[in-house]
Amino acid sequence: MRVPILKQGDYLIASIQSALSDQELMQLRDDLAEQAGRFRSRGIIIDVTVLDVMDSFACRTLRSIAHILRLRGAQTAIVGIQPEVAFAMVQLGLALGEVQTALDLEEGLALLNQRTKREGSREG
Amino acid sequence: MKDEVRVPVSSGADIVTARLEGRQLAAKAGFNGSDLTVIATAISEVARNIVEYARKGEIVLDIVQDGNKTGLRVEARDDGPGIPNIELAMQDGYSTGRGLGLGLPGTRRLMDEFQIKSNVGQGTTVVATKWIR
Fold first, then answer.
1. CB < 8 Å to B36, chain A
2. What tens digit of pLDDT does each residue of B92-125 get?
3. Fewer Cβ close by (within 10 Å): the C or N end of chain A?
4. pLDDT averaged over chain B?
5. pLDDT in tens, A52-84
6. In this structure, what DSSP letter does residue B7 have?
7. ipTM, 2 decimals?
């Protein structure tokens, strides 16, 4: 199933609805890269609240999504990593590197507001 | 009644199936929330190794008993190319594939017991067990 991506002002919000296969994660990466350009998005939120597993592949793909979008001039925030998922990630040895994270959607929006404001308005 | 679940693995979708089956069986065995996630994550890693390196194989899940301990055993086996240097493959960050090189060492950290057997040209078998604390 394709992850629905909602456009809200300057932001895109991708809400993952169910466990994702590797192929679906790569589809999300491609969809976000395309839509962020088309809508000239400045911030992207990926909501992973429903994910019960974040393995090395998911982690690497999220990292590359954030990197790709950064190169396209947008900030990414991963929100909703569950406590037990965070625990398993640490045991596995996974790190999200420089990818920004927030507790939930609300915090993620606040984070993006902060980050995109600091960089100044694109029109400015 | 035998609590054994076999999942053939040859695609990304099969990896998801294997970890869902593992989570279900682990819940049936009596594992709690964070252990369920740990087990599902470990299954995901060994199943991905099958798809990535051997293309196809099988995950066998079992509820096991040892004295008064109950656990879940995850066995991942394939007839793939095998691993020439297991010591190297067990090091963090070492990968001959596209991964992060955390699959095998990470799985060992996630589970309580971990064994790997591999013969070049014949295949690889990983057996990992988690016990209920």
1. 52, 84
2. 888 887 777 788 999 999 999 999 999 999 999 9
3. C
4. 93
5. 999 999 999 999 999 999 999 999 999 999 999
6. E
7. 0.86
For B109, the closest of A19, A59, A93 (CB atoms) is A93
Strand order in the sheet with B123-131: B4-9, B57-66, B69-78, B123-131, B113-119
Nearest-angstrom CA–CA distance, A118 and B3:
56
> pTM of the entire structure?
0.91
Task: Tell me: pLDDT of A120 over 70.
Answer: no
Q: Which CATH architecture has domain B4-131?
A: 2-Layer Sandwich (3.30)
DSSP 8-state class, residue B72: E
Options 3.40.50.300, 1.10.3720.10, 3.30.1330.10, 3.30.750.24; which CATH number does A5-117 get? Answer: 3.30.750.24
Helix pair angle (B33-49, B103-110), 10° resolution: 150
DSSP B52: I
Please count the other Cβ atoms lying within 10 Å of the Cβ belonging to residue B87: 8
- Do A87 and B34 make contact, defined as CB atoms within 8 angstroms? yes
